[in-house]
Amino acid sequence: MTQDDCLVFIVDDDQRICEALCELLAARGLASVAFNSIVDYLAFPRRDLPGCLILDVELPDINGLEFQKQTDHEQHPPIIFITGHGDIPSSVRAIQRGAVDFLTKPFSETELMKSIHTAIDRDCGARLERAELVTLRHRLSSLTSRERQVLPLVISGLLNKQAAAELGISEVTLQIHRSKIMHKMQAASLADLVRIAERLQVPVTHSRRAGTSSK
């Protein structure tokens, strides 16, 4: 990755740590910006780039672990905690809440860079998944109200005649709706449509047996 590909945020109340980390990352070809408090970090106008947040645990305004607990993970990049007073319970909680790593000062450059690249890769993956989900939701919104009724029946595994009977329409009409759904959702197969529906959390409300609802 290069300076233009990502951005590493650093929040530490020790200015010397901030400067040292910025110099290290610059030498590795990574852009970074440092802050001495969470307030300053939150006030910074962030570019829409993948990255990570190197976050000190003990800060003057809010504890780093508390910030992680309160924050919306989609609004902030993956976190790498750094601390001079690490303990196992804190590290376990941080990792369980999604932190990439919990490094105790002094840590090695190798440890830090490995964690940074892992965090950036994770952020890139999450961004791609969110973008794909937006596309799928847009496709779902293009379905008519009747097609939205047909979709759960199709992915539930009902036969065409069973789904048609459920809606009180002819089997031919059901097949037309099904074909349009496949086209609009850009599904290559029924299995593909089922996977798409799972990502969109479309409910499966029927079993293959006609007239039977799954609870």
Overview of the structural elements:
This protein has helices at residues 15-27, 38-43, 64-70, 88-96, 109-141, 145-155, 160-167, 171-184, 190-199; strands spanning 7-11, 32-35, 51-56, 79-83, 101-104. With 215 residues, the chain is an alpha/beta fold. It has a 5-stranded parallel sheet with strand order 2-1-3-4-5, sandwiched between helices. The model is unreliable at 209-215 (pLDDT under 50).
Radius of gyration: 24 Å
| Coarse structural class | alpha/beta
Average pLDDT, rounded to a whole number, is: 91
Biggest sheet, open or closed, and with what strands and sense?
Answer: 5 strands, parallel
Give the DSSP E fraction (strand runs of 2 or more residues): 5-15%
What's the helix-strand series? EHEHEHEHEHHHHH
- What is the total tally of β strands? 5
Distance between the termini: 49 Å
Instruction: Pick out the low-confidence regions.
Output: 209-215
The geometry reads as: elongated
Total DSSP helices = 9
- Give, in spatial order, the strands making up the sheet with the most strands: 2-1-3-4-5
Features of this protein?
215 residues, alpha/beta, 5-stranded parallel beta sheet, 9 helices, 5 strands, 52% helix, elongated
Q: What can be said about this structure in brief?
A:
With 215 residues, the chain is an alpha/beta fold. The chain is built from 9 helices and 5 strands.
